[in-house]
């Protein structure tokens, strides 16, 4: 196994201007194949509620579900950094969040991800003080799908965009090690990336960020229904799962993905 990917590795990639690839994974086999293909970060995403469990949103996913899949992925022989999502409503107080994050770390995660804005600052600080690296997921936060009236691009107007940038700065200050931006205009993502010194991962956020992430099923062409605009099927051109993982990793590394048609 090659050297493990750490947060330091991702910071070095950012400093060198070398984009890194991230992908969701929910089981040991796929995690091993993705790691073999060079994918730097594997996320046990609460998207598993939709792609594995068949729910219409991520809201029904429990902490137990996340712990189970994190254990599965963590058994993989892979150098990838393992990140796990905190599911809906496990962030109601800083202490509840820390207990939930503790379970995911003990299941094998190296970092946890939670959805929110500047109001998370206290929680982020408490987690990082206790040795739990944190990624904050901003922009389109799927756990708020009902509050947002659907899966819609966020930060389209200047006021919203400026507020998101300010919140990202606050969260970096609070100790966030990574910021993830979902479905934001390309120009805003680039502005946020430039305002921060930690790595920024994008999904539907354009090419001007440090890392890209997709849901595994989507990039394997296994989306049921209409895929989001930011999705590219790497399976059709590659013909095998490991080939698709390698093609995705290479496309991110060379900045040929995302292309303009994948951006807002
Ligand atoms: N298969 C799958 N892929 C994902 O990327 C994903 C999940 N599931 N489940 C959890 C969330 C939900 N996500 C979504 C779902 C839909 C859109 C979507 O349809 N977006 C519109 C934006 C329209 C607009 O405001 O302009 C699009 O056209 O892409 C985006 C993100 C991302 N996550
Ligand atoms: C789409 C990514 C960023 C995610 O949060 C998930 O898969 O749950
Ligand atoms: Mg998620």
UniProtKB/TrEMBL annotation:
GO terms for cellular component: cytoplasm. GO terms for molecular function: 3-methyl-2-oxobutanoate hydroxymethyltransferase activity; magnesium ion binding; methyltransferase activity. It is found in: Cytoplasm. Belongs to the PanB family. Its EC number is 2.1.2.11. InterPro entries: Pantoate_hydroxy_MeTrfase (IPR003700), Pyrv/PenolPyrv_kinase-like_dom (IPR015813), Pyrv_kinase-like_dom_sf (IPR040442). Its main location: cytoplasm. The gene is panB. The keyword Methyltransferase applies. The active site is at residue 182. Catalyzes the reversible reaction in which hydroxymethyl group from 5,10-methylenetetrahydrofolate is transferred onto alpha-ketoisovalerate to form ketopantoate. Homodecamer; pentamer of dimers. Binds 1 Mg(2+) ion per subunit. Its cofactor is Mg(2+). It comes from Kushneria marisflavi. This is 3-methyl-2-oxobutanoate hydroxymethyltransferase. Mg(2+) binds at residues 46, 85, 115. Keywords: Cytoplasm, Magnesium, Metal-binding, Methyltransferase, Pantothenate biosynthesis, Transferase. It holds the Pfam family Pantoate_transf. It catalyses: (6R)-5,10-methylene-5,6,7,8-tetrahydrofolate + 3-methyl-2-oxobutanoate + H2O = 2-dehydropantoate + (6S)-5,6,7,8-tetrahydrofolate.
